[in-house]
Specification:
Elements lengths: L2 H13 L15 E8 L10 E4 L5 E3 L5 E5 L5 E5 L6 E4 L5 E5 L9 E4 L2 E4 L7 E5 L22 E5 L8 E5 L12 E4 L2 E3 L26 E7 L2 H4 L10 E6 L9 E13 L8 H14 L29 H4 L3 E13 L3 E13 L6 E14 L4 E15 L10 H6 L23 H7 L1 E20 L2 E20 L11 E24 L3 E24 L14 E24 L3 E12 L8 E11 L5 H4 L4 E15 L11 E4 L9 E5 L8 E14 L4 E13 L2 E5 L8 E5 L2 E14 L7 E18 L4 E3 L5 E3 L7 E4 L2 E4 L6 E3 L14 E5 L4 E11 L2 E11 L2 E4 H6 L51 E3 L2 E12 L2 H4 L6 E9 L3 E2 L21 E2 L6 E11 L1
Parallel strand pairs: 1-7, 13-16, 46-51
Antiparallel strand pairs: 1-4, 2-3, 2-5, 5-6, 8-9, 10-15, 11-12, 13-14, 15-16, 17-18, 17-52, 18-19, 19-20, 20-21, 21-22, 22-23, 23-24, 24-25, 25-26, 26-27, 27-28, 28-29, 29-32, 30-31, 32-33, 33-36, 34-35, 36-37, 37-44, 38-39, 40-43, 41-42, 44-45, 45-48, 46-47, 48-49, 48-50, 49-52
């Protein structure tokens, strides 16, 4: 079946071909007519291609599956349709009754690409596809998290276990330093803005993931575009890869089906922090006191009669962590209806999702509604819409690197200290709040409203020429109200409050002209040209209040002191693009595309960027010398080369010289310089080449996809230092380069013949990416305590620490590498000691079906990534922190000559460099191996027989039980190796500081078809 024929069928279905349309001159013979149906359900199949063999004469079936065609006497007819096996029959007496059977052994045939679909056989790009069925029923708030371990070369990890929180996703590595490294998300043609709108300070964590506004149950499929040939059509937005999300739609001729899906889940932390007991803490403090040269008669923990705090064995142990971590609940309810007639098809889905965090008091809930509607106004005109509405509520709380975060306030105070004061009030120690005061009194609410909508019109100008125009909006609104009463530190002395209204609006208008044609049996051409107009507007209004008359009056209007501010910015993008795909005999394929973008963020002379790409494919399996081997059912070589750009993540006015108000003098308004101008500022540019191999062997029971890529990003948008005499510290310039090179492998196995009652399928993928900073003006340090360092020749996310070589067996002091050999340990001896990139990562998906039973599991893994465990940094402190307790690991410290350990002796003496001094605990002693293998999901389900459920007038009924994050095998000592508490700070990763872990979840669910 010809790929252009497939595209013609899809265009006919999607863009108005509701009636049979002859697309070639009929031959002057008798008319043959008939109907085409599905072999299993016997329902009519609209849009089936009917060709006269050896001729260009053909037609497609109408909405009722019927066709009529004049052919020469004795001709054979070839029937082909997406997802079905091709069938050839002789044109005999009419009407013909043709039934098509699903082609279970074909490679995934049609792939959604940029602005079009393409036959997988002729695809020259690196594109990974994930079907919606593989994503359903996983208890996660956002669809991007569901991709974890599903696609080679796509690294996905949650920054924390907070519901609806930020997600780290990288497609073939990170390309930029200052600009964004997140991929472009396109949902039914709408470019999604994935900017976090929550303004409340939460300890450098990304508190919200805008993609959590999407309901994963509405998704039909996800395509990840990875190489330049696939992404260049998106130009300046394609450098970091593109994620195309297609939602469910109704189909012509389908009866209306109603589906109800619900599940309920319980979640707990799979692991807990191990702290010393009260007596153990007292013994450690006494030991530290003696090591510091203290008088043995003046031990801090000695008999109270002697003036001490009581003997170590008399100390109590207070458990705070059990108050914070809970058994959390998740509830999901989904109701959808789908169907269609010859003229109108629809999908309507409504859902409610509620998820508690395992760490009190955080929670997330979402109401969602989706309406997808397509209507054939005439045989040539088709209109439609894809509209999604969402209302979210987040009860946000600070954790991660924040001393008044809930976890910090339970984890850090010493375990021998009471939770309450003698008078019953909340006890607080040092800079830490009382954890119960926070849990019971935090009042941080964030309510989001989201509208993602696209309306389109499509008109068939000619037989093979279609014009499409679409208008889209992504309206994202976040309203936050925070009140801190006097019972928590943030509200002292008389209460504080803040309120934020943040709004991000993206408007998009696109026109595309598509041309699809066959030249005889051997040649096909698909071409399109188009343009895009995009405008993005961001605005935020903030209010703050202090000094409240009481804790019951929580609105800012009640505050004695009130302040406010507002900000607004706007950026525009104008684009023109074109793409053409030519295929000969479905054997040789060539793609070429180009896009031109003009951005308002750059100077007038540098606004335009040009992004070309080319791809070539050769199906060697169609050559006789390969077919003679009788080994391959499919064998294809492909290669691509192209350039993409990046402007995301920089200011809307990055190239302009700016001044700001607020520089007032004697109550008179004034302005001051804010930013140096750089009219030469231009695009980051990423050049990438990719070579790939696709193969199918063992009668299509084993499929292989192999890719090697090389990316080089130059002209990085960097904050480059300038002389202080200019009055500025830096200016944004194009300087620097980053490379990413890697390999991706995916194997898909069907272990048993399709005719057996048991079906067993496994998909395994693994990838390796090597990241390197190729060019940088000067080293850049970032993150808490400058733990991360960007340096030419090293990868991004590199850790800059002192290298501890051991602990002296004689005196118990830590020993460090003297990097510069000057005989002293100074800041010059800090070095790069590892990075947060895994050596390789991937996943396994396995499914087994037997009659109504289904069993499946998914695994994901990473190997070799490093994690900075800041919990050990602070809680294995050797006595240097007077208000902070200890992890149990501190008990493994050096105590006497001959002890072999990595934990130095207890001491607060700075000159020892054990925990303080020059080193200040910035030692790779706390840098750990973050490798892991995780059982992401494990499920067992049963679909009741149709004859059984028909008695209660149901179409289908499936019940299942599933576990998520059931087991995690890792050498990492923290709660979760999938972590980044500084996700809000650029160029940092794998930083663990009182972060909520991924929960272990067990759920039960039911799906009912009406």
């Amino acid at each position: 079946m010809k790929p252009n024929t497939l595209r013609r069928v899809l265009i006919t279905l999607l863009w108005g071909g509701a009636t049979a349309t002859s697309y070639a001159q009929s031959e002057g013979g008798p008319q043959v007519s008939g109907i085409v149906t599905d072999a299993s359900s016997h329902t009519p199949l609209p849009g089936v291609t009917v060709m006269a063999k050896g001729s260009s004469a053909g037609t497609t079936t109408d909405a009722n599956g019927q066709f009529a065609l004049h052919v020469s006497a004795g001709s054979a007819l070839i029937f082909s349709y997406v997802g079905y096996a091709k069938k050839e029959v002789q044109a005999g007496s009419t009407p013909l009754a043709i039934d098509l059977a699903p082609d279970l052994q074909q490679l995934a045939e049609v792939v959604v690409t940029g602005y079009s679909e393409q036959n997988r056989k002729t695809l020259t790009s690196a594109i990974s596809s994930v079907k919606g069925d593989a994503l359903k029923d996983i208890p996660a708030a956002s669809p991007d998290q569901l991709l974890q371990g599903k696609a080679p070369g796509v690294q996905v990890s949650a920054n924390s276990g907070v519901p609806g929180g930020g997600i780290f996703i990288r497609i073939r590595g990170s390309n930029s330093v200052n600009a964004s490294n997140d991929p472009l998300y396109v949902v039914d043609g709408v470019f999604i803005n994935n900017t976090n709108l929550i303004a409340t300070g939460l300890g450098n964590q990304v508190s919200a993931n805008p993609l959590a506004d999407l309901n994963p149950q509405d998704i039909e499929s996800i395509e990840i575009l990875k190489d330049a040939n696939a992404t260049a059509i998106y130009g300046s937005r394609g450098a970091n890869g593109v994620v195309l999300i297609t939602t469910k739609r109704g189909k012509a001729g389908d009866k209306t089906s109603i589906t109800f899906n619900t599940y309920h889940a319980l979640s707990k932390a799979a692991k807990q922090y191990s702290l010393v007991t009260g007596p153990e803490l007292a013994a450690l403090e006494n030991e530290r006191f003696l090591n510091d040269g203290g008088n043995p008669s003046q031990l801090p923990f000695r008999a109270k009669a002697a003036g001490g705090r009581g003997l170590p064995e008399e100390q109590q142990t207070y458990d705070r962590l059990s108050d914070v971590f809970r058994t959390a609940q998740t509830h999901s309810y989904e109701l959808s209806a789908a169907g269609g007639s010859a003229k109108t098809q629809f999908y309507i889905g409504a859902g409610y999702f509620s998820q508690e965090s395992i760490a009190r008091p955080s929670a997330f809930n979402r109401f969602s509604l989706r309406v997808n509607l397509d209507n054939s106004v005439t045989d040539k005109l088709r209109i439609g819409t894809s509209t999604a509405l969402a209302r979210t509520h987040r009860n946000v709380s600070s954790n991660d690197n924040n001393p008044v975060g809930v976890i910090n306030s339970a984890l850090f105070p010493r375990t021998n200290l009471p939770i309450y004061n003698p008078d019953g009030s909340y006890a607080k120690y040092g800079s830490f709040d009382n954890h119960l005061a926070l849990i019971n009194n935090l009042n941080n609410d964030a309510v989001g409203s989201r509208v993602i909508s696209n309306v389109y019109g499509q008109y068939a100008l000619l037989k093979n020429l279609t014009l499409r125009s679409s208008w889209s909006i992504d309206f994202n609104d976040m309203y936050e109200n925070n009140f801190n009463n006097t019972l928590i530190l943030a509200g002292q002395p008389r209460g504080t409050a803040s309120s934020f209204l943040s709004r991000d609006i993206t408007l998009l208008n696109e026109q595309t002209l598509n041309y699809n044609v066959n030249f005889g049996e051997n040649h096909s051409l698909q071409a399109l040209v188009g343009n895009t107009l995009q405008q993005n507007t961001f605005q935020r209004t903030s209010l703050a209040g202090q000094q409240f008359p009481g804790n019951d009056l929580t609105t800012i209007a009640s505050a004695a002191t009130q302040t406010g501010s507002s900000a607004r910015s706007q950026a525009g993008l104008v684009s023109f693009f074109g793409k053409a795909t030519y295929s000969f005999k479905e054997r040789y394929t060539a793609d070429v595309s180009v896009r031109a973008d003009a951005s308002s963020r750059f100077g007038r002379d540098n606004r335009w960027g040009y992004f070309p790409a080319v791809g070539l494919g050769w199906r060697l399996g169609e050559e006789s010398f390969i077919q003679d081997l009788n080994i391959f059912q499919e064998l294809k070589l492909r290669g691509s080369l192209g350039r993409t750009g990046n402007q995301a993540g920089i200011s809307d006015f990055a190239s302009l010289g700016l001044v700001q108000g607020g520089a007032n003098y004697l109550d008179l308004p004034g302005t001051a310089p804010l930013q140096l101008a750089n009219p030469n500022l231009s695009w980051e540019s990423t050049q990438q080449w990719n070579v790939g191999l696709d193969a199918a062997v063992l009668q299509n029971h084993l499929l292989l996809e192999l890719n090697y890529y090389d990316k080089y990003t130059s002209g990085l948008l960097l904050n480059v230092p300038v002389p202080r005499k200019t009055g500025f510290s830096s200016v944004v310039e194009n300087f620097g380069a980053v490379s990413n090179k890697g390999i991706e492998v995916q194997l898909t196995a069907s272990w048993l013949p399709k005719t057996t009652a048991v079906q067993w399928n496994t998909t395994f993928n693994v990838a390796r990416n090597v990241n390197k900073i190729e060019k940088l003006a000067a080293p850049i340090t970032t993150g808490s305590r400058d733990i991360f360092r960007l340096e030419e020749g090293a990868p991004l996310y590199s850790f800059w620490l002192y290298n501890q070589t051991g602990v002296s067996r004689e005196n118990g002091d830590a020993q460090y590498e003297d990097v510069n050999g000057d005989g002293r340990i100074t800041v010059a001896d800090r070095k790069l000691v590892g990075n947060a990139w895994p050596n390789y990562f991937g996943g396994v998906t396995n499914s087994v079906n037997f009659k109504g039973l289904d069993f499946g599991f998914t695994l994901n893994f990473e190997q070799g990534a490093k994690i900075m465990n800041m919990n050990r940094f602070f809680l294995v402190h050797g006595g240097t922190q007077s208000n902070i307790g200890y992890l149990s690991e501190q008990l493994q410290r050096w105590q006497k000559p001959g002890d072999v350990t990595e934990i130095p002796r207890l001491t607060s003496v700075a000159s020892s460099n054990n925990y303080g001094g020059v080193v200040q605990n910035l030692s790779d002693r706390y840098l750990e191996d973050g490798s892991f293998l995780r059982v992401r999901t494990l499920s067992l389900g049963y679909t009741l027989p149709k004859e059984t459920i028909a008695r209660v007038h149901l179409n289908s009924l499936r019940v299942y039980v599933q576990a998520a994050n059931l087991f995690t095998f890792t050498p990492y000592s923290g709660l979760d190796p999938e972590v980044n508490s500084q996700s809000g700070v650029s160029n940092t990763k794998n930083f663990d500081w009182a972060t909520v872990p991924q929960p272990r979840t067990v759920q039960v669910g039911v799906t009912v078809g009406l």
